[in-house]
Amino acid sequence: MKKTGIFYGSTTGTTEDVAHRIGKCLGVEDADIHNVASSSPSDVADYDLLVLGTSTWGAGDLQDDWEDFIAGLSQVSLKGKKVALFGCGDETMADTFCNAVGTLHERLKDTGAEFVGAFPDGVYEFDSSSADQGDGVAVGLLLDEVNHPELSDSRIREWAQLL
Fold it and tell me: Nearest CA to 4 among 34, 41, 45, 32?
């Protein structure tokens, strides 16, 4: 049975809440849900599936706590591991919606990880996102807890089934 670790960065608590909701859907124990602010990239070693989550800030920036963590993680071989990405954004930031999820994908694409969990993003209205792969599909689960919190729980459940 694969072991799942969830790693998130959260400034206001929204992404942390989503991480725990995803954990509940996946049957992940609280001890396997990690805030990157108090974690080390070496903490991913014990897991087969890494579920990584971030919020998007400013002009499409990665959540602050991710900066050091992703710098270290991007230097580690993740060969043999699956990585699923999720993130929170605000569709009114139409030019940068959930860009931080795209940043995680970009920073980890050369680690040997197998990305899983691409998911439709067409329920939101935005002009551009580095997380969008085209054809209404994103590199992971995108959520807008600001404008459309009513969509999140069903999207989390559907996405969890893919993993």
Answer: 32
Question: How many domains would you assign to the chain?
Answer: 1
On whether the CB atoms of residues 30 and 23 are closer than 8 A, the answer is yes
Range of the domain at 88: 4-162
Q: How far is CA 55 from CA 26, 35, 88, 110, in A?
A: 20, 13, 5, 22
Q: What is the pLDDT of residues 61-116, one digit of tens each?
A: 999 999 999 999 999 999 999 999 999 999 999 999 999 999 999 999 999 999 99
Q: Give the CA distances from residue 66 to residues 7, 15, 32, in Å, rounded to whole numbers and listed in that order.
A: 10, 12, 18
User: How buried is residue 54: exposed, middle or buried, by Cβ count under 10 Å (0-12/13-18/19+)?
Assistant: buried
Provide the H-helix boundaries in 13-148: 14-26, 66-73, 99-108
Domain of residue 60, CATH code: 3.40.50.360
Residue whose token pair is 């680690």: 111
Could you give the residue ranges of the DSSP H alpha helices within the chain? Answer: 14-26, 66-73, 99-108, 149-162
